[in-house]
Each structure stands twice: as C-alpha cells, then as structure tokens.
Amino acid sequence: MSTAIQAANVSVRYGRKTALEDVSLSVAPGSVYALLGRNGSGKSSLVRTLLGQLPPAQGRATLFGEDVWRHRTRLMERVGVVPEDADAPPEMRVRELAWFSSRLYPRWSQAAFDARIDRFGIDANARSGNLSKGQKKQVSLALALAASPELLILDDPTLGLDVVARKSLFEEVIADMADRGITVFITTHDLAPVEAIADRAAILKNGRIVLDEELETMKSRFRRIRFASQPLALAQANLIATAVRQWGTGTEAVVTNYNDLELARLQEAVPTVDVAPLSLEEIFIAVAGEEKGQQS
Amino acid sequence: MSTALVIASRELRDRTRVLIVGAALAILPFLVALMPSAESNRATVISALGGGAAMAYGLCLALMYGVSALGRELSEKRLSFYFSKPIAPVALWLGKTGAALVTVAGVALLVAIPSFLAAREEWLVFWGREDWFVWKLIAVVALFLYFGGHALSTMVRSRSALVALDLVCAVATVMLALMLVRPLLERGAVERVFAVWAVLAGAALLAAAIVPVVQLSRGRTDVRRSHAAYSSVLWPVIGVSLLIAAAYTMWVTSPSLKSIDKIENLDQSASGQWVFFTGTDSARGDVASSFLLNTATGASERIQPLRWSSVKFSRDGRTLVWVESDELLPRFGAARVHTRTLDGSGADGETSIATGISDAFTVSDDGTRIAILGRGQLRVHELASGKLLAATRMNQSDVRSLFFVSPATVRIVSAPRLEKTASILELDVTRKALVKTGQFAVGESFGFNALTATPDGAALYVNRAGTIRDGRTGATRVQLPIAPKTHRASVMLRDGRVVWVHDGVLELYDPSGARVREVKLPVSGGLIMGETENGHVLVTGRLGAPAPGVRGRKFVRVDLQRGAVVSVKEDVWGAVRWWGIDPRLPVYTADARFSGMNVEDRLTHWQQ
Fold it and tell me: How confident is the model over B496-551, as pLDDT tens digits?
C-alpha cells in the first residue's frame, strides 16, 4: 500500500453542474494533508467522493489502494470521519451514538470515547439534537477517534468550535494522530494551525486542484516582493507572479518560483528589493483569492 | 450482532412515544364503554373499537415509517451518518424496515390485546372471521403503505424532474394492469384476474421491498441520485412483471380447441355443421374460451363473446350473432353486437349496434335482423347495416318471450312479476308500432321457458299448465289433461302438436288435444331438446337416479310417426338451449349431426 488516499482524474457532476474537474491527489500514509479551498470550491464533494458517498463521473478514488465506491463498507472500518455538518440523528443520545458505533467498529475504544467526552464536558445523556454546533463536532470527533482509525477525514472540523477547542483540536488531537502514524485528511478555513501540522497542502479552486505540494516546498517558493520599479522587472528576472499590485512607481507581487538566483537577477535590475516569506493563509489568498466575478 | 440488527435495535430504542400513544389507544375502548349509551353492549363496543383502533393505528404507523424510512434523512442530508460508517446498504434497509414492521405489528398487538382479553367472544366475531382474513389483509395493506410510502417519499422529496416520469410510469402501469386483464374479464375469469393482479401486486411489493437496497447502493447520500437509482430499477422491474403477466394472460386466453376439457355452454346450427361452444382448460383456471367449429371440415376459430352473454344461431342456420364488450374493463356496461355469416354470403365482424351485456336479444329466422331488449327499450336493428328500424319502451324484467314471427313482426309475451296476467304484444317493425294483441292468466311459475310457440307464432303453449293458446290473443284453445313437472318436460312442436315426457314414456297430443300415442322411452324422465325436420323428437334424460359424479344422460331420438325410439346415444349432454328468450323449439335437419358433452365434459359429436 503506497497511498492512504488517492484520487485519479476525478470529476464529479451534479446534473449539468461540474463540482470537480479532473482532480488528482495522493496522500501518503501517516501524513497530514490539508485541502484548502473557498466556499463552493468543491471540497465537500471531494470528501464525499473519498468517503464513497458520491460516485465520480470520471476517474477513481481509492483508500488504502481499494476503490472506495466499490468497497466503502469494508474500508469505512478503517476510517474515522468528522463531517462538515452534524449528521447524527437528533433524537440519539451521546451514549447511544457511542453504543451504535461500538457495534460497528472492530477496534472501538469505549474508554477513549468516554475520556474525550468527559474532557469536552459533554453530558453523555444529552440528545444529539440538543447539543451546540461545537459540541456536535466534538462528539463526532470523539466517535471518529474512538474507532481507532487508520485514516481520519475531517471536513471543516473547527466550524462552530471556540478558540480553546480549536487549539486543542490541532495541537493535541491532530498532532497526536500524526505522531501515531495515522493519516489525517483535513479540509478547513482555519489555515494558521494547519500550517503548523500539515505535511502537504492542496488548494482547490473552482473544482480544480491548482496547487498540491509539500508545505515546506510551497512555502519556500512563494514570496512577497516589493521593489521600486515597474512589474516588467519581474519578467526580466524570470519570476512568476500570481498577484501583482502597483502603486506609483513601486510594485508588490507574490511570486511562485522564488529562489536566490531569480532574486539576484531581479536585484541586478532593481537595487532595492524587499522580500518576505508568506504564510499559508497568504499563499491561499494569493492563489485562491478574489477574481473577477468572484465574491469573498 | 449483525449490522442490520444494530440498526434495527437503534431504531427501536426511540419508539417510546409511539408506545405511549398505543397504550392510550388500548385504554380508549374501555373508556368509551363506560359511557351510558354503551351500557347495553359494552363487550361489542370494546371489541369493535379495540380491533379498529389497532388496525387504524398500525396502518398510520406503517405509512408514517414508510415515508420517513430513508426519505427524511436523505432530504435532511443526514444519511451520511450511516454511510460514513461500515454499514452495507442492505443492512441499513433491513434494519430500518425490520424495526418499522416490528413496531407496527407490536403496537397493533399492544392496542388490540386488552380488548381481546376483555371481550374475547365478541372480538372473534368482529375480527377473527374466516381464519383472521381481515388481519391478513391489513398486514398486506400495511406492507403496501410502508413500501409505497417509501417510494412516494423518495420520489417527492427529490424534487427532481424525474417525478414527472414516475407519474407517467405509474399511470401507464395502472392502465396496463387494467388492460391486460381485459381479455380475462371478457372471458369471465374473475379468479384469474385476481390471481394476475395479486401476482402483479406481489411483484410490485417485492420490487418496492428490494429496490431500496439498490437505491442505497447507487444513490447513497444524494437525494436525487437516490431517486434516480430507485426509479431506474423499480419501473423496469414492474415493466418486466407486466410483460410476464401479459404473457401469462396471452397463454391462458389462447387454449387450443383440443385442450378444452370442460364444456360449459354449447349451441349448434340447424344442420349441426356449425357448433359454438364455450369451455375451460383446467390448466388455465376459470378462463372460458369460445370456439366456432365447422364439424364438416374440422376447422375452428376463436370468437370471444362476453361470458354468460347469449350467442345465437339464426333458425336458418346461416348466421351467428353474439356480443363483445366495448369497455376497457368489461362490466355490465357497453357492448357491441358481432355477427358471422356462416355460408360466407354476408358481412362479418363488429356491427355498429351497441348493446349492454345484460341485454337480451333474439335474431330473425333469416338472420337479417336483431331485436334487443334492455335498458327500458326494445330495439330492432338491421344486422348488416346496424340501422335502427324500430324502438319502443319496454321493461326487460317483465318480458318472458321475445321472437320474430317474421322479419317485420316481433312477438312479445310480457308478464310483470306481481301480476297474474300475461300480455301478448306485437311490434310492427315497418309501422314502428307496438300493439297489445291479447292476454291470458298465468300462475306463479310463469318464468323463462314457461312457453313454447309454433315458428309462425300462431299458437302458444304454456308448458307446465298444458294449455294451448292462440298465439296472438292468448285465448285458450285446448287444455290438456297433463301436469308436467318441469318447463321442458312438455313442449309444443312446430306443427302445433304437444309432447310430454314423464315416467319413462312420451305422450303425443294433437293440436285439438287428442292423445295420439304413447312411446316407451329408455329414460325415466327427461327434457325435450328439439325436433327434426322429418318428425323426430329429441329427448335427453336418465334412467333412474343419477349415479354420484356421473353427468351423462341418454340422448334419445323418437320417431313420432312410427311411435318408436329410433336411436339412443349414451352418456352425453345434448346441445342445450335452456334459457333462450325465443320460445320456439329448435328444429334440426333430418340428417343433423349433434354435438354435446360426454361424461367427462368434453366435446363430442354424433349422428343418430
């Protein structure tokens, strides 16, 4: 088994609308993979496809090397899922959810579930429908983790969580998973904490993967450059800019192929160049940010 | 614990409210029985309300659970709860369905049992008849409501354009289900109709029970894909069921002449060359098939008159007339007259003459006209053109005899049930006038077959009274000193003479009432079936009491001139025209070949 998740040329359509177009990605076992994208970019469709809930119109999605559409039932024994929206029946109590899951997962750990619910301060007798959005997420997370998964798929897991819970999720839970060699696939808008734990990130834009690489590599080639000259200087230095702003005689640009050689070339033309590294959030905004006709 | 049981168990944990309502309903009959108005029949009130509430509540729950089985979670996008876990579609469906059906049955029992225990006898009278038929029916209805509710929920909740296609398919299914039993209804095969519908309903139920597994496998959490998956399997399965039912219907309605093993109706033309008969093939159930057989050539063709409606040969033996239904579902409604000219001299097939299948009709001797009695009217049409020649108001139930004395004159004997007088009427077709020509007193047994008449209608004979009357005025001509026990034990021949069969003899009287002779018969009693052109009388009867299970009779041909039995055919049922509205005795040619049924109810031919 060389990959935990693989999507090969996956396209998903809803009638005439294309949600995903020719998406390919690969997640190595034991890694933390962050899928980023704006609302409506196709993240949830991709997650549903990877969970075998949505058939690709083209291409193939596999988990642990097996076609997930065909072998979903068996594969789900190895996968923990935290869905974007709470989907547990609202009339079920937390302890009933645990009982239900315990009968389905061969490696279920009731102690782990109880401990986590206890830590979250959630009443096990509370009905799912009466929990807050954040508590529902926490229950989902506790259920997913108690199943002792080999792969954890988190679809916007911080939605509705307070700051403390978010911090706990990333710093304790996901980091712990990563340390234990469990593959984590996460979609989120919370980019700062992801940056600290993700091994690889991809950006989905309008149903297409526009960026997919190791986070370190990504961060090393993206730079914000400011210089007192026209943008033409970028081209002369063979720097590729994804976002360019001009003011007076100055230029600010985000370049995607930064390295020392190109910087030296630019400095030959423009003596004063201000170079700053980019955070993942800034890279995301530069790559997936506003376009003509697109609202944030 | 298997996954299906886990799901069922989960579903059942949340049924507290349903049980509380059930418990309240179980108590309700006892509270109603405490009312002063129920004091005299408390047990009846408890049993009626207890059983009724159990059924009604069970059916409501079945529908409710069917509608929400998957549909609610699909439309609320919560089905991913199951699909993100190692749960197979079949386990999900089985678990949910099992829990729903167990709940429905359990709650029905919860509501019913207290009233059953409190008023056991009355309860059994109300609800336990015919081997608990009502409960079995309710169980089937509950299944239909559950699976039908799920189907409707799946279709409607998806809000996709496919709903229109579903509607078209549903309408088409109903139409096809009705149309494909039409041939069965025309053949009176009510059992087969119910069998076909039961099989279709069973197939639909089975499909509706199994297709959700495909729906979940292919559609999973997407409400529209789910609907598409459901419909794309359901309708083809139902379509295949309809095709199989259609093939079965074709098979049961297409028996060969040889496979008919039970004749139930038979008539023949004067020469015996043409035989019409209706019969069933035991392998094809109660489907009656009709054939017109040319006994001279052996050629046969299938015709399909409505079962139990009349089929008539004209007295000249050249025309056959029958009615077929005009309706999608044949009932006592619209029908149409069909005709076949047996010598090939005229037009065949469907005429433009409309009728009802409960209408009576008779055909003129030359086969050119038809008189139809029904729906408060007597109408005379020309068969070839369908043209209405005359019509008059007439109550069908009053008429005892109706026949053409000539193509232009129809003779009617009418005797309203509570009146003791019969009227003789004549419809002049040319002048379109109805005239009462006479009347006579009648007794209580003056029903169908009470009369025989000469072919020209000049004389009437009241069979069981032994009275020869004037055919137009009804005036008594002769009162014979006889007392026949049945209408067909004594009849008038075409020349006005009267024969009476009784106690192993045939007595012959001339039109003046004089006893001409007595002929000893090889049968103890009998019925007079017809006469031949050369003066022979055909009698059918048994010698002594019939042996159990033996239907055969002797068919005896008597030469009236010589006063001797000419021949006897054993173990046959003759060509019978028992309930014709035409009172004239059939007249066969001298060399006529006869057709009838043998002791095994199969078709047989003989000449004697």
Answer: 999 999 989 999 999 999 999 999 998 887 889 899 999 999 998 877 666 665 56
B32: left (phi over 0), alpha (psi -120 to 50) or beta: alpha
Residues of A in contact with B159 (CB under 8 A): none
Q: Which of B3, B84, B86 sits opposite A83 (nearest CB)?
A: B84
pLDDT tens-digit series, residues A250-274:
898 898 888 888 778 888 888 788 9
Structure tokens that stand for A181 in this block: 């060699």
ipTM of the complex: 0.91
Interface list for chain A against chain B, based on CB atoms closer than 8 Å: 14-15, 48, 51-55, 72-77, 79, 81, 83, 85, 87-89, 91-92, 96, 100-101, 103-105
CA distances from A114 to A94, A124, A153, B13, B264 (A): 10, 8, 21, 21, 80
Residue B460 near residue B474 (C-beta atoms within 8 A): yes
pTM: 0.81
pLDDT band at A165 (very low <50, low <70, confident <90, very high): confident
Helix ranges, B423-557 (H): none
**Interface contact B13, partner A, CB < 8 A:** yes
pLDDT of residue A293: 39
Residue B225 to chain A, least CA–CA distance (Å):
9
Out of A22-26, A225-229, B332-336, B557-561, which region has the weakest mean confidence (pLDDT)? B332-336
Whether residue B81 and residue A51 make contact (CB cut-off 8 A), yes or no, is: no
User: pLDDT below 70 — which residues of chain B?
Assistant: 1, 331-332, 346-347, 544-552, 574-579
Do A79 and B84 lie within an 8 Å CB cutoff?
yes
- Residues of A within 8 A of B77 (CB-CB) are 85, 87
From the list A15, A74, A85, which residue is nearest B86 (CB)?
Answer: A74
Per-residue 3-state assignment (H helix, E strand, C coil) for A47-79:
HHHHCCCCCCCEEEEEECCEEHHHHHHHHHHHE
A204-228 b/e (C-beta count within 10 Å ≥ 16 → b): bbbbbbebbeebeebbebbbbbbbe
Residue of B nearest to A51 (CA): B84
Predicted confidence (pLDDT) at residue A205 exceeds the cutoff of 50: yes
Q: Hey, is B331 helix, strand or coil?
A: coil
CB contact (8 A) between residue B222 and residue A105? no
Choose the closest CB to B6 out of A52, A73, A100.
A100
According to the model, what pLDDT value does residue A290 have?
59
Q: Which two tokens stand for residue B233?
A: 């399997």
Strands A250-255 and B498-502, bridge-based pairing? unpaired
For chain B, the distance separating the N- and C-terminal CA atoms, rounded to the nearest angstrom, is: 81
Q: Which of B234, B253, B254, B244 is nearest to B177 (CA)?
A: B244
Rounded to 5°, the CA angle B378-B380-B381 comes to 140
Using CA atoms, how far residue B432 sits from B66, B355, B381, in Å, is: 65, 20, 12
